[in-house]
Amino acid sequence: MDSAESPTKTQAGEDENYSLLCQAHEQFNNSEFDRCLELLQELETRGESSGPVLRHNRAVVSYYKTGCTQHSVLLKELEALTADADAPGEASGGLSLKQGAAAATVARYNRAVIYYHRHMFGTALERLAPLVARLEALEKAMAALVATLQLQLLLATNQLNRAEAFLDYLQYKLNLVATAPSSNSAEEAAVVGSAPATATTNSSVVATPGGAAVEGAVPGLGGSLQLLQLITLVLNRKPVVIQEDGTPEYAALKAQQYYIMKDFQMAAKQLMRINNECTHAGTVTPQLSTCIANNMGVIHLRVRHYAIAAKFFQNALNFDQQLARNLRQSTLQTMSSARSCEILYNLGVAMLHLRRPKEAFQCFLVPVKQFHSNPRLWLRMAEACIMEHEAKLVEEERQSQSETTPSTKPYAPQSAGVPEPTLEFAALCLRSALTLTQHYKTRFHMAAVSSEDVEAPEPKDPTQESWRHPQDNNFCNPSKPVSLESLENMLAAIYAAHSFVSLRLGDHVTALEMSEKLLACERLSDAHKLLGHMYAGEALMLMDKAGEARDHLDPTFVGTLNAFDFETRDWQLKSVDAAQNVVRYNLAVAMALQNDLPQAKALLANLTHSLVASKALALRRFIDLKMGPVPGGTPS
User: Fold this and answer.
1) pLDDT-derived band of residue 450, with 50, 70 and 90 as boundaries?
2) Cβ contact 345:297 at 8 Å
């Protein structure tokens, strides 16, 4: 939080008022807030003309006096102060603000800081925009504060390309940062820094200890600017040398660099070294413990050690809950450090891999409230619903086989809008995921870079407007920006899941529509191609269109599929042979529906895979009954 009171003498006739302001500033720095408020009140009774200055300072001092917990009251006062200002940088007539910045300017900045700590990054960007637009006109100390917070917000919202362009602007236009040390001396890298290091995952991000509120003048920001510069370079996969200074922030950034370069073993060793050194020094905090535990979980999740990853995520959640016990009465720095949503997102993904869908669903319910525009999160919730439904079917079948007399189960209708792991809610999740993904695909930004541009890059000439041009496909916050291939794979997965759920719910028209859209997808994997034909064939058979279903169940296309695509997926079809047996069985069903019984029986004779053997035998007996005994033959 930036204090508005670092006095500068502005008029010769204001010696006494200036002296009072100096005393108030000294009392504020000594945490004598009551005395500071008394001095400010005395200034106001003397008729000091800098009304907005005193009003802002009084609000900030009162905020610190209450233990930095009444941020809502401070925010309300800052909102009123900026609303009353004629212009964002309106200068006041009396005592000046710190480094010459006007009251409304500092109020706008402090207001954005509060929104940042409350994880309202979009609102913070909007509130900071007027100051960023006139960054070159601000006094240098204030410009550094605004630029630092803007960069933190760009990284927090995963606008990595724009963050790098903004840093080019700060380096080449405003000279606020220097070139970062690069592992490639011929390559330029211009970026700024100010925030704690972050740990990336396909699911989420968790920050190391540190706050977003910037205190002090420009010299005090040097270390944070350098750190944020390195963070931006690392996240944009630029070669950069990270020279550790003994702090956990730089050490954690080094671990993150290892992770991005897929050196997971070194990343884990680096995190363990941080933990050991801080434990020995007695500097371990809940924020640091949360960061290390979450990032260790991310590493194990990446190498498919799902049980270990889940344990680390649970530990991270326990550490984080120490911070988030009473957020309403906590400081802004504590509120900013709470990362329960991101950790629960990661834990939910691990639980899905461990086939614990009910726990995964409960984990996803929390982050979906904050990241409701993330289509991948809606898809994960639908997958948890599907997995839970299938597990219930298996359990019911097992119980029915063990019972001597069949039992009746009451039907309990439930609204699809109730967040429970049911197929009805899965359909709702998939509709949300599909709508969002289709919308984002129309807005997808392709960064076209020709080989000529790479060989001969143009000299950088960043301006206030040029850094706004780069676009980031950050559709899946808190995950990193998605590629076009990842977006198309997600769309194919949504179509496949939507078709499956529609079949289970008896909506055959929607199931057919989704399967046809799945087959029309670009870059379709062999596994999704198989599912598309299978679901389309089943939907057509249920719609009494067995003839059209046979077109989708031609076994010849299975032979062209890549076996590796089946072996590496977490499902029952682990080979092309298994896929062939399943497709042939469904084709036999379609033939039986058309009364083409001899061909269906001949097809069933060769189905020996365990996935379909029992069903094939039952269908063959049914066909035998329909065909009747063969004259002179023996029963099969």
Assistant:
1) very low
2) no
Inform me whether the pLDDT recorded for 94 exceeds 50.
Answer: no
Crossing angle of the two packed helices 306-323 and 340-353, in degrees rounded to 10: 160
Q: How many residues does the chain have?
A: 636
Residue whose C-alpha is closest to residue 374's, from 302, 444, 437, 294: 437
What would the mean pLDDT of 269-290 be, rounded to a whole number? 92
Alpha-helix runs per DSSP H in 85-159? 103-117, 121-133, 140-156
Give the Cα separation of 384 and 366 in Å (integer): 14
Q: Six-digit token pair at 512?
A: 């057919």
CA distance 355 to 333: 37
Give the other-Cβ count within 10 Å of 446's Cβ.
8
On whether the CB atoms of residues 562 and 526 are closer than 8 A, the answer is: yes
- Whether the predicted model's global pTM rises above the 0.85 cut: no
Distance of CA 396 to CAs 355, 407, 419, Å?
18, 11, 23
Quote the pLDDT of residue 631: 57
In sequence order, the β-bridge partners of residue 207 are: 198
Q: Tens digit of pLDDT for each residue in 21-31? A: 788 888 888 88
> Which residues are paired to 198 by β-bridges?
207
CB atoms within 10 A of CB 218: 17
Q: Let me know: does 165 contact 467? Beta carbons within 8 Å.
A: yes
In angstroms, the first-to-last Cα distance of the chain is 85
Could you tell me the two tokens for 525?
Answer: 């994997």
pLDDT at 292: 94
CA distance 296 to 311: 10
pLDDT mean across residues, the chain: 80
Q: What is the Rg, in whole angstroms, of the alpha carbon atoms belonging to the chain?
A: 31
Confidence at residue 3, expressed as pLDDT on a 0 to 100 scale: 58
- Residue in the structure block whose two tokens are 């050196």: 263
Angle at 395 between CA 390 and CA 400, to 5 degrees: 125
